[in-house]
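Hi support team,

I've been running sequence recovery on a batch of backbones for a student project. Most finish fine, but this one hangs at about 90% for roughly twenty minutes before it completes. I'm not sure whether the input is malformed or the queue is just slow. I've pasted the structure tokens below so you can try to reproduce it. Let me know if you need the job ID as well.

Thanks,
M.K.
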């Protein structure tokens, strides 16, 4: 098991730890479920698991619906973009907006929606 307790390279300031299990699945532990505003509102549960191409836990809000983020990709060498796959939709964003880890927001409305399952896809 490979463990990383520092927040180097994370998208969130509230990240507590990251570890890699024997099956090479990453586990990210966050202080609490939270919401972060990038180009879209993003929901992170307190535990995100998976590989970069098979994620479980991260959701993005668009038009009052929540969609699961399935995959995150970057070009090597870097093109300056990061790609997110949400279902069959691919979204390209400028990687610079991810340079600095963001702080979690506690959003009561969206927390209620995510806990009840309303509008989740």
């Amino acid at each position: 098991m490979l463990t990383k307790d520092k927040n180097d390279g994370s998208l969130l300031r509230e990240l507590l730890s990251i570890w890699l299990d024997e099956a090479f699945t990453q586990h990210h532990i966050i202080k609490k479920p939270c919401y972060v505003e990038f180009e879209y509102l993003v929901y992170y549960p307190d535990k995100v698991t998976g590989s970069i191409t098979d994620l479980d836990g991260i959701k993005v809000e668009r038009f009052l619906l929540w969609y699961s983020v399935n995959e995150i990709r970057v070009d090597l060498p870097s093109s300056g973009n990061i790609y997110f796959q949400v279902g069959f939709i691919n979204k390209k964003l400028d990687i610079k907006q991810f340079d600095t880890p963001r702080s979690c927001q506690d959003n009561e409305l969206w927390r209620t929606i995510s806990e009840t399952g309303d509008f989740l896809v």
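--
Follow-up from support: It reproduced on our side and the slowdown came from queue contention, not your input. The first strand starts at residue 2 and ends at 4. No action needed from you.
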